[in-house]
Specification:
Elements (H helix, E strand, L loop, with lengths): L1 H15 L2 H8 L2 E7 L6 H16 L8 E7 L4 H14 L3 E5 L1 H10 L5 E6 L18 E5 L5 H12 L5 E6 L4 H17 L2 E6 L3 H11 L5 E5 L3 H5 L1 H10 L4 E3 L2 H5 L4 E5 L1 H16 L15 E6 H6 L6 H6 L2 E3 L1
Parallel strand pairs: 1-2, 1-3, 3-4, 4-5, 6-7, 6-8, 8-9, 9-10, 11-12
Antiparallel strand pairs: 10-11
Helix pairs in contact: 3-12, 4-5, 6-7, 8-10
Length: about 325
């Protein structure tokens, strides 16, 4: 009798489990990831690894109760659209989208599937959400930064290289975020006594030719604004800045780690970890419409002293003291 009573109690307990808990133990949730970088990009690999690691900490393990499908678009618009359609056919439970250029195609291809985005400068202006506090649709996520950061880039560049009177600004003219960042730098430039020259990033040849012309005059510097194309051409941009002796500020850590002079911007890996938290909440039943878009909380100033020495620059002690990381 005891054995029968025990089996009856266990059966009753299993039947009483919440539906979500049972689903997690018996069904794999499909999570799609569409990232703008090439598959061999170490920066992108670090970000996706941070996302997957955080998902695991939250109880979602690839191959056990989750299936993660990752597509690497290499900043190619046609490839982004193709992958968006391909992922739509897989009917994922939620999609992680990197950058504004991936979110639009995804929302068009899979309007009924939740999208969590990272590194998006202006989701309201792009029409992805109704407002930051109340997204109201099927997408939510994390701001890249506010455009005012452009003034900070120029301020830091003048602090490390006071002789600069001219600055080339690398931007993506086809991306509204590129226009926003350019506008913020333009507003700040007169107060720093700096003349600006835009450099479009549509092709490697265009970047190289424009910077070669710019570098013919003295007292020049370089500001690299955020875009998928700038990330794809990272090594070329760093090499050109070194070749033409241009002090340069970059929007993201990996430029400084790869030999650039210095970077100031959000910790993007931290955004991927935070995005995993939103994915977890959506998989457990919450709606993107109810999850507010969040701004970055962690910014990093990274200095490369080897590059500073090669440019003949002495980094001010005040700047060294504020640096989150110094690369020797």
């Amino acid at each position: 009798m005891r054995r029968r009573e025990f089996i009856t109690l266990v059966s009753a307990a299993i039947a009483a489990w919440p539906p979500v808990s049972r689903a997690q133990s018996t069904e794999r949730k499909r999570v799609a990831v569409l990232i703008t970088l090439p598959a061999d990009d170490r920066r992108g690999q670090t970000f996706v690894a941070a996302f997957i690691e955080r998902l695991q900490q939250l109880g979602w393990n690839d191959g056990r109760n989750a299936q993660i499908e990752t597509r690497w678009a290499a900043a190619d618009g046609e490839r982004i659209r193709t992958y968006a359609t391909e992922l739509a056919a897989l009917a994922p439970d939620v999609v992680l989208a990197t950058g504004a250029v991936t979110v639009g195609p995804l929302l068009s291809a899979i309007p009924s599937i939740p999208v969590v985005f990272v590194i998006v400068p202006d989701p309201v202006g792009a029409g992805f959400v109704a407002s930051l506090a109340r997204p109201g649709g099927n997408a939510t996520g994390f701001l890249m930064f506010e455009y005012a950061i452009g003034a900070k880039w120029l301020e830091l560049l003048k602090e490390i290289a006071p002789r600069i009177t001219r600055a080339a600004v690398i931007r993506d003219p086809t991306n509204p975020a590129g226009t926003g960042q350019w506008g913020a730098i333009q507003v700040a430039a007169p107060s720093f006594g700096v003349e600006l020259s835009p450099v479009n990033v549509r092709s490697p040849g265009e970047i190289e030719g424009t910077l070669a012309d710019f570098a013919r005059k003295p007292n020049g510097g370089l500001i690299v604004t955020a875009s998928a194309l700038a990330a794809s051409h990272r090594e070329l941009i760093i090499a050109l800045a070194a070749r033409y002796k241009l002090p340069a500020v970059y929007y993201e850590y990996n430029f400084a780690a790869g030999g650039g002079l210095f970077s100031y911007g959000p910790d993007f890996a931290d955004q991927y970890r935070a995005a995993a938290g939103y994915v977890d909440r959506i998989l457990k039943g919450e709606k993107p419409a109810d999850l507010p878009v969040q701004a970055p909380t962690k910014y990093e100033l990274v200095l490369n002293l080897k590059s500073a020495k090669a440019l003949g620059l002495t980094v001010p002690p005040s700047l060294l003291a504020r640096a989150d990381q110094v690369i020797e």
